[in-house]
Amino acid sequence: MKNKGRDLTKEHYQQLRQSSCEELWQQDVPRFNNATPRERLDQISVVRAVGVVFSESGNSLQKAEARQWLRGLLNDPEEKIRRYAMVALPKIGSGESEEADLLTLLKKSGSDRETKFLAKTLEKIGGAATLEVSSQGDFKALEKTVQKLQANVARSEKPSEVKLQIVLQQTEGIQIHLRCRTGLESFIKGEFEDKPETLSRFRIIRTMPETVTIVPTAPFSLADLFSSRTFSTASFVLGTVDSPKDKLPLDEFAAIIASPSTQRLLETFTEGPIRYRLEFLFKVGSGNPVRDLADTIFARAPKLLNDSRNAPWEITLHRIPRGYSVELSAKLRPDPRFAYRQGDVPAASHPPLAACLARLAGAQPNEIVWDPFCGSGLELIERGLLGGVKYVFGTDLSPDAIQTTKANLAAALPPSVKSTLVCCDFRDYTKIRGLRNISLVVSNPPLGKRVPIPNLEGLIDDLIKAASDVLKPGGRLIFVNPFNKKNYDPSLKLQFRQKVDLGCFHCYVEQYQKLDIPAQPVEKPTQSRFYKNRKNPSAY
Predict the structure, then answer these.
(1) How far is CA 393 from CA 212, 372, 382, 511, 513, in A?
(2) Most buried in the list 214, 368, 410, 529, measured by CB within 10 Å?
């Protein structure tokens, strides 16, 4: 009978979950309020649904009304209803008033189960008042909430941030992992070796799939590190643990994270309290190893506060061949390398990939660049930041993409770089004034993974034909090719080809050069095969 009751409650919640805030508030909440005590228990899913639905779609006034209703339920004579209310409260935002209500209930609660639920809720929304109560030692359930409470107080009173310009003087023993998509390691290596400012501070010691390992050779700042644009993430290797894969050595992880060297690193680069998010990048067994490890770290180093909400640092545990690697990375929001991004569009390029394509192109004077699928403009911008660009052209089917590219270009490049952005099919390039004798065509075209494309191969063929037509002799075509085939056009010579893992599928980063040979007749592109029946022409 209990299981049947649970199933009915779950089914009722799933139905309510599809309701709007207005429907819940005008129909289900009044029905719950006017029900008998027995009926209220049968309709208890309403409380849970209000917490979830109002958190996702409620406006500020609706949330305030729902919050007041849930606060009233904290005084309900039925413990189960009180528990549902305290679980729902944090979802729609709570403050000092709700914290005071929960502390009042904690002091008069006689149920161990209710006390545990109260402690979990206060861990999420509690602040200085709960921290003071926990320090008195009257409530054992609050003992494990101290770290979270301190993080809550730290987050609200003095937000933490990463200091990019501070120079770390003691660099002995430090290793840094620069991670990327498999196949892009050579771009990271080339960028570090080509830039005197990074080459004078860092040395590459190892290159492996997805990872380039560097060590500092002189004092450095995070700004020095993030002057490189081609890596996806950078993390300090705090230490490694040799251990069988079926064993999770939490004490050894904690010793590394709470060590003096790790604390010194965090203190150097952090303004404000040190808050970090802890994550295992592999499947773990039963229990709550993240909580257990965070508690062990806190016991060893009380300055280090585990906090999953907007923490400026992330500590990740990776599996390696002989055990585990413990790593620390700054969670920079936004990434200072790509702070020019005023907006984004669905399926836009990953910024480090755009930077890799730009580096493959290199810097040439008086460059004229065209991106047939400009998206948010990242390829055009990354090439422009290398210098020497005179003019950029961007085309895209999406009006939003054109507007986003326009805003991003204005934020990233100087006014001396002129641009023409046109919302059109790239195959209409002959209608765009000035789009001839281009020195560079660079693009990350749609690959058919996020937006289905009926004839992707035909799209790529037409891209190459268009590039061959507009490029001047010596001009370059650089793009991400989802197909493993070569020799598209006799006027284009393949100069570079690298297989890249773009996440569950492989593509090829390719570079072609336009040869100085008589032009071949160019078949006029048609749209009938590809666009005739498209319902959504706003994306390729």
Answers:
(1) 34, 8, 14, 19, 19
(2) 214
